[in-house]
């Protein structure tokens, strides 16, 4: 299914960051090793490591065209400088009745690139904070 890129969107205090061109979610789970002396295969005698799931973690990254509009790069730079509110990352469907998710994230990396005769671009990475919240599109 083709997607138009609106399915990962970063907002700051309800305002979408302007110029977003792509986004990615990278969720992970810490793996805790619980291998012990009894982890050996009784037939072969080979030890096989055993794990259980630990804490969930993740990062969300976006690329953007570096617009000088106050809701573009300047909004992200203010987040970098102040670190007073997390961004809200919205991902999933935008179709009535379907599910989407919201995830808080703190800005952990901000890059701005300027080439000759080119549109300035940038990227931002957010560290997940807390659990994602499942919601249903109502409008």
Low-confidence stretches: none
* Beta-strand content bin: over 45%
Distance, first to last CA: 22 Å
- Individual helix count: 1
Give the spatial strand order of the biggest sheet. Answer: 2-1-5-6-7-4-3
Structural class: mainly beta
Written as H for each helix and E for each strand, in order along the chain, the element string is EEEEHEEE
Gyration radius, in Å? 20 Å
Shape: elongated
Please summarize the sheet with the most strands.
7 strands, antiparallel
Average of pLDDT: 90
Helix content: under 10%
Quantity of strands, as a count: 7
Descriptors:
139 residues; mainly beta; seven-stranded antiparallel sheet; 1 helix; 53% strand
Structural commentary:
- There is one protein chain.
- The mean pLDDT is 90.
- The chain has one helix at residues 73-82; strands at residues 8-12, 15-16, 20-33, 51-65, 87-92, 99-113, 121-136.
- The chain is 7% helix and 53% strand.
- The chain has one helix and seven strands; from the N terminus they run E-E-E-E-H-E-E-E.
- The radius of gyration is 20 Å and the shape is elongated.
- It is mainly beta and 139 residues long.
- A hairpin with a 7-residue loop joins strand 6 (99-113) and strand 7.
């Amino acid at each position: 299914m083709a997607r138009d890129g609106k399915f990962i969107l970063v907002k700051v205090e309800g305002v979408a960051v302007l110029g977003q061109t792509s986004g990615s979610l990278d969720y992970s789970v810490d793996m805790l090793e619980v291998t012990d002396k009894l982890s050996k295969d009784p037939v072969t005698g080979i030890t096989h490591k055993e794990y259980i799931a630990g804490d969930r973690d993740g990062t969300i990254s976006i690329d953007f065209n570096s617009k000088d509009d106050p809701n573009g790069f300047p909004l992200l730079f203010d987040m970098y400088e102040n670190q007073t509110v997390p961004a809200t990352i919205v991902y999933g469907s935008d179709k009535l009745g379907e599910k989407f998710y919201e995830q808080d994230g703190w800005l952990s990396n901000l890059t701005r690139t300027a080439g000759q005769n080119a549109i300035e671009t940038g990227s931002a990475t957010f560290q997940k904070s807390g659990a994602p919240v499942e919601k249903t599109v109502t409008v």
